[in-house]
Design goal:
alpha/beta; 6-stranded mixed beta sheet; 3-stranded mixed beta sheet
């Protein structure tokens, strides 16, 4: 039964929402557990373009947000959303790896998002240099994606190299992110995994949540597949959450031809998933200062034309209307569907391991 109490869901950092807006701008058959590309010759010939600058040193543990002890058969490589915002005149356009504001924000966001993967996987999360939201506010979508291929990409690729060479030990893995972290995950899927098919074949799934995966982009990368249900593997799982009032409005995380999967029933069509089907949302209790699982908060229905998930939750804080539209729920992509996502990670991990 749907709860009617007012949600007091303070964001760990409202600048994360604003940052996300500045930095973000043919469904195919489901993937097999083997993840073998359709055209392996193209993969073998693919080379990553020259990287910008000198990579951060990931042999230093202080450059990692999270290094898990190995207690599971599968890992997660998680990239947090935007946590760097500096509007001072001498602000750096891309922060240093040890920027205190960025690192503090990343730790706080991890509790909202990264923890969802901990029950089924060993989570590894690098700190990485991030774009300053005030530096890139005026860029187009294309310019933004190009901008993220600077020192940000250099760090993410260096972290991946170190992770695979020193931490992974041949285990299957999940790629995960949100907002700016999902931009970087998308770049990893489109470049790094194409250059490293020996890693890609072990990918259980990718969760670039809160940033559009489009049909056009999938056609350009035919070795990648979007999820078709709850238990297929080697696939991309993604959605953007909105209220009904965002229909026809500009939302900088929603691109034309976007695809979203329903994070409650794991369907691509417009089958409605009611509040009673939601296993639980993860909500911050301000008085206690702890997160609690609360049922009856959010429903979900895919708008197949717009490529988003429509949610009719009441009494919530919307993202800034001028940037995301009047009813964007971008900040709740993880929160609203936390328990369903946690269970889905478990389901896909078990399905993948059965094939091995």
């Amino acid at each position: 039964m749907r709860t009617n109490k007012i949600l007091r869901m303070k964001l760990c950092n409202w600048m994360f929402v604003i940052a996300a807006c500045f930095l973000l701008c043919g469904i195919t058959a489901c993937g097999s557990s083997g993840n073998q590309p359709e055209d392996t010759s193209k993969q073998e010939d693919f080379a990553i373009a020259d990287l910008a600058g000198t990579p951060s040193d990931y042999a230093k543990e202080e450059n990692w947000l999270k290094i898990s002890e190995i207690t599971h058969e599968v890992d997660t490589f998680y990239l947090y959303p935007t946590c760097y915002s500096d509007e001072s005149e001498d602000a750096k356009p891309i922060c240093d790896i040890d920027n205190e504001e960025m690192q503090a924000g990343a730790r706080e966001i991890y509790e909202k998002q990264g923890t969802v993967y901990e029950e089924s996987t060993n989570v590894f999360a690098p700190f990485y240099r991030q774009s300053n939201i005030f530096q890139v506010a005026g860029l187009s979508h294309e310019e933004l994606e190009d901008y993220q291929r600077g020192e940000q990409r250099t760090d993410v690729y260096a972290a991946l190299d170190y992770y695979f060479e020193n931490y992974n030990d041949g285990r299957p893995f999940i790629l995960a992110g949100h907002s700016q972290g999902s931009i970087m995950t998308k770049i990893v899927l489109g470049e790094y995994m194409q250059a490293h098919p020996e890693y890609y074949e072990r990918m259980v799934a990718a969760y670039p949540i809160g940033f559009s995966i489009t049909r056009d982009w999938l056609e350009e990368h035919p070795y990648l597949k979007f999820a078709q249900g709850a238990d297929d593997t080697g696939v991309i799982v993604s959605w953007n959450t909105e209220g009904k009032g965002n229909k026809g409005q500009n939302n900088l995380v929603v691109e034309p031809n976007a695809i979203s999967i329903n994070p409650i029933n794991w369907k691509l069509d417009d089958t409605y998933a009611g509040f009673e089907e939601n296993l639980g949302s993860r909500i911050l209790d301000e008085e206690k200062g702890t997160y609690e699982i609360v049922k009856g908060i959010a429903d979900a229905q895919v708008d197949t034309e717009r490529g988003v998930v429509i949610c009719t939750a009441e009494n919530v804080e919307y993202a800034p209307a001028v940037l995301f539209g009047p009813e964007s729920l971008h900040a709740y992509d993880y929160d609203f569907y936390y328990e369903n996502l946690r269970e889905n990670v478990k389901t896909r991990v078990e399905a993948f391991l059965k094939t091995r």
